[in-house]
Amino acid sequence: MTDPQTSRNLPSGLPPLEPEAREHQAAVARYLAEQIRQAPGGFLPFDQWMHHTLYAPSLGYYAAGSTKFGGATLGGDFTTAPELTPLFGRTLAAQVAQVLRASGSDSVLEFGAGSGALAASLIPALRDLGIEPKYRIMEVSADLKERQFDRLAPLQADVRWLDALPDGFEGCVIANEVMDAMPVHLFRWQEDGALHELGIVCEDDAFAMAQREAPPQLARALEQRMPAYPGYRSEINLQAEAWIRGMGDWLRRGAALLIDYGFPRHEYYHPQRAEGTLMCHFRHHAHSDPLAYPGLQDITAHVDFTAMADTALEAGLDVMGYTSQARFLLNCGLMAHLPLNGAADGMEQAMALAAVQKLLSEAEMGELFKVLAIARGVEAPLLGFQQGDRRHRL
Ligand SMILES: C[S@@+](CC[C@H](N)C(=O)[O-])C[C@H]1O[C@@H](n2cnc3c(N)ncnc32)[C@H](O)[C@@H]1O
């Protein structure tokens, strides 16, 4: 096989690639074909496919320098809350400040900082609250680290990028839309009750989805979580669970605010969600074909928040709150940040209101996105969960 094509039938409506993008995709495809060739039995489990297509150095979606974040007019693929408006970071600051005071620390550790948008709004907001933070970033993408550096340098703040997880961190951890970007396993319950794992093979010079019996670790994890619905296909994020388990070792005192789209387990593995939650994004086209445009499109899965909370408890951490993004932001005083006074012009007000509508609306980010707080050694009830805490639903 020389230059494998991606899936032969692309999802309808996907824009065609320009010559430069086609060239990049061909390089990614050759790299992926080699990974498949080296995999036992020529079968690359889906989590490894997702890992390589997103993070292969200089090739993967998050590693290769495409625009990614921002509105369609800016050439992005998707928009996150901090990209949408600085009001998100300014509002989050109230919760971060409370955690810092409760843990007697001024350290913030942000995972997966994207373009640096959240840090760019959070640091000035913390300064306004009298905190000069030590801001640390864990970022897997070398390209994004550079972008974050350029974006944050003008703040002249104490910002550093960590190469390894801290040994005994005290302070506030933040991860916005990071767990959804961690590689997931794809599985399918067969008609005879057996569990199969999905993966990618090369077939007739093209990538194709295939399946085989799931390894025992995967089967054990799923048997405990859901019935074997025949034909049911979904995902499980063992990497995010391992990440939270690790936090149990290194979070000495403080809280982690994990913000992402997802549900409690009974909704995640609902019988009617029989095709799972995997989503791909390319220039604001959302579809569900993870073989299309490898290296050029984002691949994500929703988060099973019950799994994350259970893992935190097993790791000796406390689960301090779980609620919708809308409720969390309102509890943290979002409305007080709206530029409604005379200083703001009409256009600024209209844009801020449109962004807030998107953050809060049930039909947009307000209900689908959740906030989970896990902690150690923090006693006080957290501001963001004062009303509408839904831990009982996990
Ligand atoms: C969907 S983007 C979100 C970016 C940003 N937090 C935002 O809200 O705009 C996912 C980010 O997580 C990073 N990432 C993924 N897995 C990670 C991990 N295990 N540790 C640190 N960063 C990670 C990606 O490189 C990227 O920066």
From TrEMBL:
InterPro entries: NDUFAF7, NDUFAF7_sf, SAM-dependent_MTases_sf
Protein keywords: Methyltransferase, Transferase
Domain of life: Bacteria
Pfam family, one: Methyltransf_28
Gene3D superfamilies: 3.40.50.12710
This protein's record includes keyword Methyltransferase: yes
Single GO BP term: methylation
Keyword set includes Transferase: yes
Coiled coil ranges: none
GO molecular function: protein-arginine omega-N symmetric methyltransferase activity
PANTHER family: PROTEIN ARGININE METHYLTRANSFERASE NDUFAF7, MITOCHONDRIAL
Name of the protein in its database record: SAM-dependent MidA family methyltransferase
Organism: Paracandidimonas soli
